[in-house]
């Protein structure tokens, strides 16, 4: 059963650590507790989005560099 993970704070969502770098996770990737799935940037401060549960990343609800609001769905974990 899939669980939808929500943004912990508002800002800009990044799937990679820097432009040109590979994404932290792709759809279908295994996710372990503590894995970084993305970053949310607020006023040049980057906060990692860290997995609190293990599973498989099913799908992202947002694209790289999308603006997100706190509580907005980010990705599904199965």
TrEMBL record:
InterPro entries: AcCoA_biotinCC (IPR001249), Biotin_lipoyl (IPR000089), Single_hybrid_motif (IPR011053). It comes from the Bacteria. GO terms for cellular component: acetyl-CoA carboxylase complex. One of its GO terms (molecular function) is acetyl-CoA carboxylase activity. Residues 1-78 form the Lipoyl-binding domain. CDD domains: biotinyl_domain. One of its GO terms (biological process) is fatty acid biosynthetic process. Gene3D superfamilies: 2.40.50.100. Keywords: Biotin, Fatty acid biosynthesis, Fatty acid metabolism, Lipid biosynthesis, Lipid metabolism. Pathway: Lipid metabolism; fatty acid biosynthesis. This protein is a component of the acetyl coenzyme A carboxylase complex; first, biotin carboxylase catalyzes the carboxylation of the carrier protein and then the transcarboxylase transfers the carboxyl group to form malonyl-CoA. This is Biotin carboxyl carrier protein of acetyl-CoA carboxylase. It comes from Ancylobacter novellus (strain ATCC 8093 / DSM 506 / JCM 20403 / CCM 1077 / IAM 12100 / NBRC 12443 / NCIMB 10456) (Starkeya novella).
């Amino acid at each position: 059963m899939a669980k939808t993970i929500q943004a912990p704070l508002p800002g800009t969502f990044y799937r990679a650590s820097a432009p040109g770098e590979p994404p932290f996770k792709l759809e279908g990737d295994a996710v372990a507790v503590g894995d970084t799935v993305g970053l949310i940037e607020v006023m040049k401060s980057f906060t990692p989005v860290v997995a609190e549960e293990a599973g498989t990343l099913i799908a992202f609800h947002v694209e790289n560099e999308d603006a997100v609001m706190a509580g907005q769905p980010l990705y599904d974990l199965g």
